[in-house]
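seq:
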Amino acid sequence: MFNGLWTVEFNSSINQYGTGVLVINNDKLLGGDEFYYYYGSCNIEGVNISGTLMVVKYNPSGISVFGNIDHFQLIFSGTINDYQFDVTGAIANDHNMQIHIVGTKREDL
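struct:
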C-alpha cells in the first residue's frame, strides 16, 4: 500500500529548504536529490511511520539543508497515509538540527 515513488519537500531548523525523491519498498528507503543520496529503513504501523535515513553527499559542490556536511544520519517519526506522509526528525548526534519532511506519493511499485 505504501510501496512506491514519493517526492519529498523538507525544511530544516536553520531555515533551509530542499526537495528530492524517495522510494519506499517494504521497510527499505532509497532516494536522493541533486547533491545527496539517501538510504535507510522504516517501520510503518497503522498511520505511524518511523525510521532512520543515512544522507550521503555525492556531489562535492552540494550543501545540505544543515550546511556543508558530508554525511549524517536522520532519525524521524510521524504519520503516513496512502498519499502523503508528514514526519519530523533530527540528526542522530545533534538533536538541535531538526527537519520537517512532507512526502507525496507519485507512483506505486
